[in-house]
Amino acid sequence: MVAPSVTGRTRPTKVKKHASAQKRKRDDVDVDKLEAAVAGLDVKDGGYKNFSDLPLSEPTTQGLKSSHFAVMTDIQARAIPLALKGHDILGAAKTGSGKTLSFVVPVLENLYRLQHVGMDAGLGALIISPTRELAIQIFDVLRLLGRHGHMFAAGLVIGGKSIEAEQQALTRMNILVGTPGRILQHLSQTVAFNVDDLKMLVLDEADRILDMGFQRDVDAIIEYLPKDRQTLLFSATQSRKVSDLARLSLQDPEYVSVHSEDRTATPKTLQQNYIICPLEDKLDTLWSFIQASKKSKILCFFASAKLVRFVYESFRHMQPGIPLLHIHGRQKQATRLDVTSKFSASKHSCLFATDVAARGLDFPAVDFVIQVDCPEDADTYIHRVGRTARYNREGRGVLFLAPSEEEGMLKRLETKKVPIEIINVRQKKRQSIKSQVMHMCFKDPALKYLAQKAFVTYAKSVHLQKDKEVFKLKEYDLEAFATSLGLPGAPRIKFLRDSNAKQAKQASTAAIDVSDSSDEAEDEGSAANQKAKPVRTKYDRMFERQNQDVLADHYQRLVRDDANESSQSKFSGLDGEPSARDDDDFLAVKRRIPAEADISDIEPQETKHDSSAGHRVVNLPGASQPLVIDSNRREKLLKSKKKLLNFMDKGKKLVYDDEGNPHEVYELEDEEDFKARGLPEEQRQRFLQAAQEVVQKADVVDKATAKAKRKEKIRKRKERERMATESGKLEKDEGGVELEDHGEDLLANFQADAASSDDDEARQEGKRSKKWFDSDSEGEERDSKKRKKGKRKTGPTVEQPQTLEDMEALAAGLLD
Ligand SMILES: Nc1ncnc2c1ncn2[C@@H]1O[C@H](COP(=O)(O)OP(=O)(O)OP(=O)(O)O)[C@@H](O)[C@H]1O
């Protein structure tokens, strides 16, 4: 066995000697004996309680001992023996129940027994996690367990610094922990990255990894991996579909769920409550809560990164008397790491977070998890609340629910067997910070801007929620919410306006439905009752519809004309005086009468009354056609001068010559003049020639402009490349790849800061920036597979071509 060089640096001889001594020591271990003991494990028995009951290698046993892991948790006791025997596993256990060890121990042990170690062995196990923080945490557990004699080279790939930095070391790895985006990037770009002999694939927080946001990446990763492997899936909530399992090629997976035993999805030591809190009172309530719990460690969840920032900034200004921290997917990786380690280390502090911190993170001793904004579903609730009461410790979760969210959310939680009870906020203890927040926003435009963004992102997040039984945008008092964020009024949001319009439309349709159904009810009622009601035709109903089409609008005006001339003027919006209707119709498109039209002049004059035909004919001044009045509607029409405008001639467009004489826009030329200029064919040829010259001249100018643009583009690209090369050189000079040698223990960590590339969580939130290696379609994915099979080439990094010029520039770049 070869001791892998796990760093980019030359290792000191002392370490090398130490490594080879360890190697020899392990060579002595009787792997066959271990193999036989594993084969004899009784997985049905479930009677293994301690790690020492299992046939584990010496290095792992030492690792567990030194970390003081002796007794297994339920999920560990059930999953580890099965995984040791090579079964595929679908593991579901509550948050904080020790799922990480359930796969880390089998990974180390199975590779150990297979002697899958050393540079030439290639990658033996791949562990995928949805967030960088969680990947780091898993890697730490791996290091902890592997530091007593395991010879594997392990790496962490979570995005960040230049990919080249990771590429070299990656080829030597035996175990890799990473986020989907970065792993896929390496699979498609790192030529020597060999996964053909992969033995184990682990998906932690599998439900999230298999969710839409990561689906494409995970599917693409799976394509690279050999089918004949062991797959372990772990999650706190499990509702996987058969299709997911087929995608992952699981073979007769063992379902290991430890939820069912006590019938709840959350730990027993967790006390869960909710309070009813309208949107506009959330900040007051949260502030009061923090004030009353200064000697606690609190984790608060919000719907968006902007809200997190706003609450963090505004609360910080008000000096709450407890250290405040904030974390969200938009921060740089280094900042996020700094925040997580600060929060982990602190005794009393309050962390404001988005769902980036909801899963898997193992913060020690969190007292309270406050879900200020309602989670998108029960699973998210469970993950969030699971940041407290971990591994048999106590903890409390408080969920803030707006009145409209209560019923729907409680239903969802009940389905997931979450025991939660309502509590009240002590009104005496509640402080209002509204005026302070408003004052701060007034004084600080940056904070006000942040408040606006927070408002918009919150409204957007609710608008985008799938579960409309819980999230009913219309039920929130958004004006009051905006005020509570220190804003003078709710910012206008396009989708809100659109949904208002839609709702108005639906409401009017519903009104018709109601009238329809009431009609039906009447049909079923007494005859007398029916008689009392006037007969209404479908046209009547159609005209009652508002905002459906122009006709309905016209009809409304007509009706008002009939009823009251003055109200008609209000409704039309010609008078400045607003009406209640104006408010209702805020989003409706109103037809306005052209200002210049003088409707007072329109005076219909009756010309003929044909009593036998039942109609009369009316002449309109300025109209070429007389108006036939043959129905009640037409009759009513006569009373509306505005309506009558529609029957007037529209007039002609004229052009005026230098002397002020009017002409038609297109006037026929005098025939004599035309003939004087030559034969028609000659004239046509002359015209074409002149036009051709003009086009040719324009073409020369266009080409010159395009060429200049192209040149400029190439120059900029080269400039960028030059700068990138220079900065790469600089990095190397300063120490190059940041490969931490956790060295004496033979586990390597190559990680990087978050400045660049794949922010998996940000992409989760729908903001994924497209990479050049990403594929849009299956066809393109097939291409990427081909690349993998045959010739994995790393091409020059280029921008996604957008225009023809871009493509030309790209082609020019490739040919250079
Ligand atoms: N057998 C054990 N003995 C003692 N402590 C343990 C044991 N197993 C795990 N723990 C501790 O329990 C805590 C939670 O473990 P872990 O993070 O693996 O939980 P999890 O089930 O993955 O949670 P989540 O679903 O939130 O990701 C950790 O601090 C870990 O050190």
Automatic annotation (TrEMBL):
It is found in: Nucleus, Nucleolus. Residues 1-28, 507-538, 561-583, 701-816 are annotated as: Disordered. Residues 80-256 form the Helicase ATP-binding domain. It comes from the Eukaryota. A motif (Q motif) lies at residues 49-77. Residues 516-525 have a biased composition (Acidic residues). Keywords: ATP-binding, Helicase, Hydrolase, Nucleotide-binding, Nucleus, Ribosome biogenesis, RNA-binding, rRNA processing. One of its GO terms (molecular function) is hydrolase activity. Residues 269-441 form the Helicase C-terminal domain. It catalyses: ATP + H2O = ADP + phosphate + H(+). InterPro entries: DEAD/DEAH_box_helicase_dom (IPR011545), Helicase_ATP-bd (IPR014001), Helicase_C-like (IPR001650), P-loop_NTPase (IPR027417), RNA-helicase_DEAD-box_CS (IPR000629), RNA_helicase_DEAD_Q_motif (IPR014014), SPB4-like_CTE (IPR025313). Residues 720-735, 763-774 have a biased composition (Basic and acidic residues). GO terms for biological process: rRNA processing. SUPFAM superfamilies: P-loop containing nucleoside triphosphate hydrolases. Its EC number is 3.6.4.13. Residues 49-77 form the DEAD-box RNA helicase Q domain. Residues 11-24, 706-719, 785-794 have a biased composition (Basic residues). One of its GO terms (cellular component) is nucleolus. Belongs to the DEAD box helicase family. The Q motif is unique to and characteristic of the DEAD box family of RNA helicases and controls ATP binding and hydrolysis. This is ATP-dependent RNA helicase. It comes from Polyplosphaeria fusca.
